[in-house]
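input
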Amino acid sequence: MLWTIIAILLVLWLVGLVGNIGGSLIHLLLVIALIAFVFNLLSGRRTMV
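output
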């Protein structure tokens, strides 16, 4: 689910960047996607060795 949200945010960011639509909102979407990605990496399943 989280990966889907990240993918959608990145696609919207790329569309806005190419189409020059949205202004600073586009960069906000990128920041949100990166935060979600980092949060997912840090809180992912941890294996016990």
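quick obs: The chain has a mean pLDDT of 74.
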